[in-house]
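Researcher: Here's my situation. A collaborator sent me these components and asked whether they could plausibly form a single complex. I don't have experimental data yet, so a predicted model of the whole assembly would be a useful starting point for our discussion.
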Amino acid sequence: MPKEFSNLFDHFDHSFSKNPSKPALILDTGKEYNFTLLNHISSKFASFFCELGVKPGDRISIQIDKSPESLCLYLACLKAGLTYHPLNPDYTENELSFFIENAKPTVIVCIEKKFNLFKKLAQINEIDHVFTLEKDGSGTLVDESDHCVHEFKTIETSSNHIAALLYSSGTTGRPKGIMLSHKNLISNTKTLSEYWEFTNEDVLLHALPIFHVHGLFVAIGCALYSGASMCWLEKFNVEKIIANLPSCSVLMGVPTYYTRLLASPEFSEKTCANMRVFISGSAPLLEETFHDFKQLTGHEILERYGMTETNMNTSNPISGQRKPGTVGPPLPGVEVRVVDDNENDLSINEIGNLFVRGPNVFEGYWKMPEKTEEDFTRDGYFKTGDKAKIDDDGYVSIVGRSKDMIISGGLNVYPKEVELILDDIEGVYESAVIGVPHQDLGEAVVAVVVKNETSAEITAQILIEKAKKELAGYKVPKQIIFVDALPRNTMSKVQKNVLRDTHKLTFT
Ligand code: MLC
Ligand code: AMP
């Protein structure tokens, strides 16, 4: 057994070394990758990075498509003690410039199509190494590491050694780097694998993107930690999920996955005959979805709650009551409190601010010590920005957010970031971006815009096209609503609650 908080990779290795030829990944083409193969490819990458002089703690920024080799790249970073910095493939040049400048990686890995863009960013930021990796497993990273040996001794890491840097935006519109240590990841992976009773008999249907906590740490973590196989889909696709579910035992997804499955006439109880559990998170699962799913399949979707800064905090149980509308009790080792604005603990069922403490909670914001201090209490609780209540069985319900954030299809959009882009467009006087109910995405991004008096010619289409150039597609408003003025309170603050209420039926 590896030391409790050594390197996360040692824990994966420990499980798979019992049966290294077992398929770790099964692609929908039928191709399989056993753990030995994943280990060999990732060892070559790790050896190559060391040969280049990359040191433990250096960042590797990665914007590539999901593939078995992209998983190997993550494993290579763990092995060599490098800080894995994944980027959504949808990010635009504007967004990437910030991330590269802020993360200051030693190596960038991208797709061939973006090579020139990253080369330019590398030059600006004095980064020596840019490689490519395509989803078919080809690219300069593979070619140039080909001569390296396929064995690599995993680096010993201290418990707070940073394994990954993931960014989340904020109310100011400026993204913050979240530093996650090997200890954070190991503790949560171990807890979840045990709590959700993963075994090496499980086959996890993996359709999530791997640039976020959900697909990367929760899904991959549980599978590799327990020696389970993963049925590996490049992205979520209803037909492919239905085709593969009969040979799988676990699915993890955002609520949109479940509403889309329910909407398919091909999805039935029979499709789910081999399934052990369906897990949902990253956004609120409607009680209606829970009940409809149970009625159709007999399965109660297990909802859990987490965030990038904390990994997973609470979860409904495998055995025992799963309460719809709640995210379950705190996970073993995680402490939660609901407090008022003066940080006094509230009673059962009272709504307040949710604070979390435990080994799962991140090490701090990258290069932002003041922000880190601001977001923690003196006794080490992290202020999540979520509004919650706890019932008399200890089950937590997330009832809202104090942070101005929209969750669209499980992806977070910070209104300020979109407003800054819209306000910069000629002809726009001001804008307010809100989330409104959307059947498919949970919430959808809507911009309420006031034009300059002189710019009658500006249209919704022009604004959307301009926003698409600057922002990843999921942040671009699905609808623009022009108004004469934004509602404001006596302090001149835009009343977003009024806007949300006025426009709540936009998509119905
Ligand atoms: C894609 N688009 C979205 C979108 N995803 N728009 C709004 N919200 C989204 N989530 C846009 C694209 O820009 C594109 O726009 C169009 O929709 C079609 O793109 P697509 O890629 O074909 O979309 P689709 O495959 O339908 O993707 C939807 C989705 C996907 C819901 C399947 O977004 C997804 O897999 N979401 C999961 C996100 C996730 O893993 N979250 C975990 C975060 S971790 P156009 O204009 O170009 O047509 C976290 C912590 C925790 O929150 O607790 O887990
Ligand atoms: P992220 O910044 O992507 O890590 O998103 C984390 C946020 O997603 C949390 O702070 C919550 O607001 C939200 N979230 C995650 N899981 C759930 C859930 N099961 N129910 C409600 N909100 C959730």
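Model: Some features of this prediction you could bring to your collaborator: The mean pLDDT is 96. The chain has three domains: 8-14+34-157, 203-401, 406-502.
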